[in-house]
Amino acid sequence: MITRFAPSLTGYLHLGHVLHMLYVWGMARKMGSNVLCRIEDHDLSRARPEYESAILETMEWLGFVPDLGMSIASATGSSDFRQSDCTNHYQAVLQTLEKRGLVYGCTCSRKEIQQVMSGGTVSSRSADAEEGISRELCYSGTCSEKGLPLEGNTVRFRTLEGETVFQDLKLGEQRQNPRLQCGDFSLRDRNGQWTYQFACVCDDIRHGVDLVIRGEDILFSTARQIQLFKTLEAPVPGYFHHPLILDSTGNKLSKRQRSESITQLREQGASASELIGKAAFLGGLTETEQSLTCSEALLLFDK
Length: 303
Ligand code: GLU
Ligand code: ZN
What we know:
Rossmann fold, 2 domains, 10 strands, globular, binds glutamic acid, binds zinc ion
């Protein structure tokens, strides 16, 4: 079996990632799976390469050693485990979908999609923000029959109709309907940047990942990804979505705040076992806060 740790390069690791790594390495140990490390810098407009070595270094310092893929030792030069080095692969997979008529080009802006969604009127952003609503755009398929070129346009995948049902190994049966959640979602944006959904599935397939362990914040992506696996005639991996560490306002921790980063806490003198113990406690894996080395913490998953 192969599972993976797939950080994006949008910031330093924080305690939420430590909890995530505990789940990935802990469940892998329990289920006899190898852990592969992959760098998800598919979107070059957001990824910052300087985070790569910081992340790999922090993993090593904490004691999380991948069995496969990217590590500090293999991080120089181009890699099959760094998405920005794999655009030819995504291009080839996209071509197979294009030949089968399963993707199309779209010129709609975000605003135009919002307009269609709301029946002509754009709801004011600030009103949404005040109500604390974060609306996901659901694309209605405006361009689906226009035959627009893929190059220079958003590339959209023709989602399948109906519910996708899957058994989450942690949360039980899940039902999601991509057609209603997001509509025909994008695989590449108009600037040529590959999307998370597409790059992630292409990589999970070619890396042979058969167990996906990740935070509940990405749960909503799973049906979309399952549709891609099935369309590409690849086996669908097992899924395990774990709870997150929330901050005092009930939001998930953000990678962009350096103040909360492991790098910073380490500079301030925190030890690896203190931080692992803290993450395990905040994530509900232990009842009291105590220092734990990486291998001690992974034993928690034997229960
Ligand atoms: N790259 C994603 C992230 O850092 C993880 C994606 C996944 O596990 O599917 O949030
Ligand atoms: Zn469109």
